[in-house]
Amino acid sequence: MENVHTFSIPLSEHPLKWKFEDENKQLSAEFEDQIIALTCDASKFLWEFESTQRYLGSISGIGKYFNEQDELSFGENQSQKVKKWLYEKGIPFDQKVFWITQPEWGFILTWKMIIKFSNDIFFGSDEVVWDKTLNWCLIFDHNDVFYFGKNRNFNADKHSEEINGIQKLITQNKEKASG
Question: pLDDT (tens digit, 9 = 90+) per residue, 69-79?
Fold first, then answer.
């Protein structure tokens, strides 16, 4: 995951670029370098990786796999409440995070961009955001509820299963690349 950012495409070529455009359908240069649109292959890799991690994307896993949990339910026209809640999670603004919205559509963004574009990122579909430390996870449920887990519990048996899952993904990707 250290070099996944090298598998990128220009944001202007990504099908979901509209989520980051201003009212004139322009992408801000200031924001463009904080939003990395990933290639289809990189997105698929992260999508598959995410599926091997039980605590990512599992609402019940938040309570099971993290020492700290938080939840926010909100309604229409409460974007400031959402932004404030996300800000209060204490993630550094420049922290790079992964957002894989579909198997072939993914991004690496700064946490600042997650907050700034939260209205467009978290709208109508389930979403998961995490970083390479895997020490926290943000889940958005399409029913306008956020779940946040922080300070992941470490269990050696679960960790071994996760490593085996990662090794399997790496082997599959190598086979695809050579085949």
Answer: 999 999 888 89
